[in-house]
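Batch manifest, entry 17 of 40.
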Amino acid sequence: MSGHPTTGHTVLAVPVPELDDWVRARTRAYDAAWVSADPGFVHAHVTVLAPWVPAPSDADLERVAALLAPVPAFEARLGEVDVFPNGLVHLRPGPLAAFAALTALVVDAYPGHPPYEGRYGAVEPHLSLDQVGPGPAPGGPPVTRGSVGADLADRLPVRTRVDRVDLQWWQGDGCRLLHSFPLAPAAGA
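Output type: structure tokens
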């Protein structure tokens, strides 16, 4: 173990595999304990709800599957690097309304589990990239919106098909995929 707490948390997340190698490498640079050995686990994601139920039951899984099954899959674009007031460098996904609707659907069914335990008020869909401040390498360049944007310049915008929501377990030395919930095929697909 790497000295991390033994407790973790669940995350309902839209995977963005097109950026997984970048996010995985960035995560490894800070703390390799958070890099999953599970090949199904996608680090790059847009959070739908976190934390969710600590130990989901079969009934919870069935309920979320039933909520998400009628939602049509959609195409998404992530291209704008931005920074939240707390310094979190992130990508804004579009269409924002489609991502927000996924969160609202699950939160309405699980009102006792507000996004981020209610710490941030209104939550904006985003894909976390880094944190403004010192970089992962001692004495290396600082992390800024501009430095992250420059690192990703040849990869943006990213287009991805949102066709599932993954249930992930996040824990130092234990990140893994627990379940995937498919969305409905898009009309005409």
